[in-house]
Amino acid sequence: MERGKMAEAESLETAAEHERILREIESTDTACIGPTLRSVYDGEEHGRFMEKLETRIRNHDREIEKMCNFHYQGFVDSITELLKVRGEAQKLKNQVTDTNRKLQHEGKELVIAMEELKQCRLQQRNISATVDKLMLCLPVLEMYSKLRDQMKTKRHYPALKTLEHLEHTYLPQVSHYRFCKVMVDNIPKLREEIKDVSMSDLKDFLESIRKHSDKIGETAMKQAQQQRNLDNIVLQQPRIGSKRKSKKDAYIIFDTEIESTSPKSEQDSGILDVEDEEDDEEVPGAQDLVDFSPVYRCLHIYSVLGARETFENYYRKQRRKQARLVLQPPSNMHETLDGYRKYFNQIVGFFVVEDHILHTTQGLVNRAYIDELWEMALSKTIAALRTHSSYCSDPNLVLDLKNLIVLFADTLQVYGFPVNQLFDMLLEIRDQYSETLLKKWAGIFRNILDSDNYSPIPVTSEEMYKKVVGQFPFQDIELEKQPFPKKFPFSEFVPKVYNQIKEFIYACLKFSEDLHLSSTEIDDMIRKSTNLLLTRTLSNSLQNVIKRKNIGLTELVQIIINTTHLEKSCKYLEEFITNITNVLPETVHTTKLYGTTTFKDARHAAEEEIYTNLNQKIDQFLQLADYDWMTGDLGNKASDYLVDLIAFLRSTFAVFTHLPGKVAQTACMSACKHLATSLMQLLLEAEVRQLTLGALQQFNLDVRECEKFRQKTYKPTFMRQINISQGDVPFQRKLLIGNWSLIKN
């Protein structure tokens, strides 16, 4: 009973579940029906579910059938109504067709009338357009007839104006008509004819200025030279109301003869051979040497023809080509100053012409174009000068080139061109000039040192004494008191070297003129160059003399004396530079002369060479020593080689009396020390294996001879390396044999 109830309950639950699943299937989207069906197959009553599903399908089929039966009569009625509408539509179509046929028949006459009206309106419009075109064509014909008449009578300016109006105003309005073709074909021919004539004039003009550029530049530079000389006169003789030359005055000729009051200006410049000119005599300027009217006419014609830009481009292009030709220096320009002068004249002439064109035409050339050309010219000119000036080995030629460049820069600066780079380049050439001066003075110093006799300068009269003192700043009260003849302590190369140093300073000063440098900059330049002369050129020359193989001790002693006096003269060189530059040595950043160091180094090198030569001489004498270490004879006098050596040292030390005390003392001590060391080395040589009393006695005599020389030479205790007493020979022999055994071991 209970089992039956439980089965019935389970059946009811299964039925409810199946009902729920069927509702989900009916209401759920087909894409999501999978989980629902899976729940059916997961259970054990899928057979009953299928039965339930079949029952539900049959129920829906019955409902669909009932619905179709319910609406079938309405469908039949709709078909009947459509058949009725088709008949009415056919009647309406027939009526519309009949109405259209009647309308076409009735409107045929109206269409014909409208077509006739359309043709009349078209003819009226064509007639009006023809009248308008004829009104445009008549002025064209009149202008063309007028143009032909003007061309026949060679009235080019009115013809250009007529051509301009005809081409730009009238022809564009009627150019599509065939009768204008003849005009269109002839007008370009006329225009080309006028342009060809004007272009021919322009080419003649360009050829003219190319030929005259050299002369124009020469004239401009001559004017600048005259103006600079005039400025110098004004500075030296200031007058009230004097005025500075303006840029406009660059085109005006200075006619007055200019003569410099400074004797160095003519000698040092060496640039322009300015001929003497009468007062009021005019030198032709750019506008006098070249006729500029062709370029003005050509510019006007091209402007009227509307080809001004073409003309400007052509003119600028041709002038650029000429500029490149002008800026190309000749290969042998560095050989003579005339080569540089011709090169600068052409450049100046070119830019004087361009500056004239700039100020007398409106837009043919502009400032940007001029600046571009000048930048190109400046870079090429500087490059050419750097290249060619590097070949110059003559300082006089470099100096003349510098003066020429300064005049070149001053000339172009008058016309408004920036020339700072040229002056910067001159500072580079200044370094090259200094190098050429150093090479020249190296030869001068070499000749002075080679030709010197390295003996004190003898003077036999007051006149000779004053001459030497005038050449070299030397004061010695004791020497002045001595009667004639007498001698200066230094040799001839001292005043010669001193004067050549001053000449070098003068040469450096010449280059700094007209460079627009301050006194401080000039002073610094001179001092640096002079330092190079002292520390490199003169120092090398002195070192070469000192290191010569055949130089003697007397020459070395004289070199020490000479360098001592040259060292003392350095303060006078400082004063000399101060006087010519007006810059006090106490000024900040003022470069000091290194002459003291140079002469000290040379003197120290000479001292070292003296020490070396003395030691070499001592070694040469010692090579003559021939000790018989096994002799049994007891000698009673020093060896011959040592006697000769002592005589040589005595004569040599006598020469050292002119040296400073410290130097002489060091030389004597060095020689004696070297002699003592060498004697010790003779005793300790490897070949000396045995000694006899006779050999020790002879060696002792030689050492005592050295001591006697030492006692007569100078007072300090002689540092004997070998101390052998004459009274205790056996003891010293034992001591030496013992030392010898220790050394051998």
Automatic annotation (TrEMBL):
Signal peptide: none annotated. Residues 260-280 are annotated as: Disordered. Residues 421-716 form the Exocyst complex subunit EXOC6/Sec15 C-terminal domain. Keywords: Coiled coil, Exocytosis, Transport. Transmembrane segments: none annotated. It comes from the Eukaryota. GO terms for biological process: Golgi to plasma membrane transport; intracellular protein transport; vesicle tethering involved in exocytosis. Component of the exocyst complex involved in the docking of exocytic vesicles with fusion sites on the plasma membrane. This is Exocyst complex component. It comes from Macaca fascicularis.
